[in-house]
C-alpha cells in the first residue's frame, strides 16, 4: 500500500484487527508509518541521475565513452551532451535544465577544461545547483592536479588565462563598437580591459576553487582507466543511494 492508502485504511477501518483504543495514539502511529513509507507522488523526481560534464577535444574519447557506458550499465540514467551540436561558448537552455534535473554531476576536469567558456558556464550552473538544491558533485581530475584546478596554476591555469583573454577581447570589442563602430589592433591593446566585469573573473575562480575542493578521483593518463572508471561508478552509485535515502527521510 502507498502512504496515503495505508493512512486512510488505518484511520477509517472498523475491522477489529485494526482496532486502536486511543485515537490520538492511532493518529501518531499512522503519521509515523506514513513518513516511513515511499511516497506515491513522483512529480518531484529528477529526470537524470548523472550529468556528465567534460571537454571532449581535451579528454580521450575512450575515457568519457567508457565512463558513460559503465554508468549506464550500472543502471544509472546519464545525460551526456552531444558534442556535434556544440557551438562556441554558448550554452543552451535545455542544457541548463538538464543540470537542474540531475541528482549528481560528474565533472571531468582536463588540462584545457577552463579554456572553454561553455564548460565554465556548465560548471557555474552545476555549483549553483550544488549550493541551492543539493546536487551531488563528483570531480574527476584527468591528467591534471587538483591543486592546479583549485588555484588555476600550471597547464590548467594557462587554459583559464586563454579564456580570460578571450572574454576581455570580446568586452573591449563590444565597448569600442558601441562607441565608435570600428576598432584597430593598436586601439584594442589600449582598451584591453575596457568593459570587463571583474566580478565575472572572481566568480569563475571561486567556482573552480569550490569544485576542486570536493573529494574526487585523480586519473593520471598512464593509469589503468578500467579500474579507475570502476571506482568512479561505485562511488557515484553509493552517493546516489545515500541521496535517495536522505530524500526519503525528509519528505
UniProtKB/TrEMBL annotation:
UniProt keyword annotation of S-adenosyl-L-methionine present: no
Residue intervals of the TIR domain: 46-199
InterPro entries, alphabetized: TIR_dom, Toll_tir_struct_dom_sf
Domain of life: Eukaryota
Gene Ontology terms describing biological process: signal transduction
Alphabetically ordered keywords of this record: NAD
Protein name per UniProt: TMV resistance protein N
Species in which this protein is naturally found: Mucuna pruriens (Velvet bean)
Lineage of producing organism: Eukaryota, Viridiplantae, Streptophyta, Embryophyta, Tracheophyta
Amino acid at each position: 500500500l502507498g502512504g496515503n492508502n495505508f493512512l486512510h485504511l488505518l484511520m477509517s477501518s472498523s475491522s477489529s484487527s485494526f482496532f486502536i483504543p486511543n485515537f490520538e495514539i492511532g493518529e501518531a502511529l499512522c503519521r509515523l508509518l506514513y513518513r516511513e513509507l515511499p511516497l506515491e507522488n513522483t512529480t518531484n523526481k529528477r529526470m537524470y541521475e548523472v550529468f556528465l560534464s567534460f571537454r571532449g577535444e581535451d579528454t580521450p574519447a575512450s575515457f568519457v565513452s567508457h565512463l558513460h557506458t559503465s554508468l549506464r550499465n550500472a543502471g544509472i540514467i546519464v545525460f551526456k551532451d552531444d558534442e556535434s551540436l556544440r557551438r562556441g561558448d554558448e550554452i543552451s537552455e535545455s542544457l541548463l535544465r538538464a543540470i537542474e534535473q540531475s541528482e549528481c554531476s560528474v565533472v571531468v576536469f582536463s588540462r584545457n577544461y577552463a579554456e572553454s567558456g561553455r564548460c565554465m558556464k556548465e560548471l557555474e550552473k552545476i555549483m549553483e545547483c550544488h549550493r541551492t538544491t543539493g546536487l551531488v558533485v563528483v570531480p574527476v581530475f584527468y591528467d591534471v592536479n587538483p591543486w592546479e584546478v583549485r588555484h588555476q596554476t600550471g597547464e590548467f591555469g594557462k587554459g583559464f588565462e586563454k579564456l580570460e583573454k578571450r572574454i576581455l577581447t570580446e568586452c573591449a570589442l563590444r565597448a569600442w563598437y558601441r562607441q565608435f563602430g570600428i576598432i584597430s589592433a593598436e586601439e584594442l591593446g589600449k582598451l584591453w580591459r575596457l568593459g570587463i566585469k571583474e566580478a565575472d573573473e572572481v566568480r569563475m575562480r571561486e567556482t573552480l576553487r569550490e569544485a576542486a575542493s570536493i573529494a574526487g578521483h585523480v586519473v593520471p593518463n598512464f593509469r589503468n582507466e578500467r579500474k579507475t572508471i570502476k571506482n568512479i561508478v561505485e562511488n557515484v552509485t553509493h552517493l546516489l543511494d545515500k541521496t535517495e535515502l536522505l530524500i526519503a527521510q525528509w519528505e
